[in-house]
Amino acid sequence: MSKRTLPSNASVATEGQSGRLVAPAATRNSDALCDLLVQFAPSTGRALEIASGTGQHVCAFARHLPDLNWQPTEIDPERRNSINAYAAELPTVAAAADLNATARGWHKDFADQNLIVLINLVHLISWAETRTLISEVAQALGSNGRFVLYGPFKRSGQLISDGDRRFHDALVQQDAEIGYKNDDDVTGLLTTHNLSIVEIVEMPANNLAFVAEKSDI
Hints:
This protein is 34% helix and 25% strand. With 217 residues, it is an alpha/beta fold. The protein has a single domain (17-214), classed as Vaccinia Virus protein VP39 (Rossmann fold). The strands form 2 sheets. Strands 3, 4, 5, 6, 7, 8 and 9 form a 7-stranded mixed beta sheet that branches. A two-stranded antiparallel sheet has the order 1-2. The radius of gyration is 16 Å and the shape is globular. The model has no long low-confidence stretch (mean pLDDT 93).
């Protein structure tokens, strides 16, 4: 994934204490995401978070699901440092790994995951990159492993609020290949890679969470 110029509100984080970055979006949606994972995630095993950002989410998840062993990942070194600062006293969170999740082949280094979580990324990458990412996720999951994909999406090809339309338009103006993906296309992509839809959950602020499970074949 090449470095893109994104709108100023696409990936906001400010400096906090002791090297920890603070993302307002992560602060807002953390509780809802924790509730979602408590409901749908396996209670034990290996959990991989893709594009962990500041580290706020993965540490909240680790506190709510303490019997999972979490591996955060992030392409940005400054954010990897923030993740490690947040997780310093959490024994179930490993040091953040450097991962470009839109590159081919990374599943070999993160095999047999019981859970993979991806939050607020696919609207910032192209559809071709999304296809590669989902293919790698499917290969990294162990049998019956679950994938949770969260973010803003079109519904049946439509943007459902003025705020979504403004944000999508701002993304497309920066890069015509990115922007909101369509929910039906995402469902089709998941099933193409042997990921069965468990549930599609309406989340706060017009977001969706796709919960999928790797079929045991």
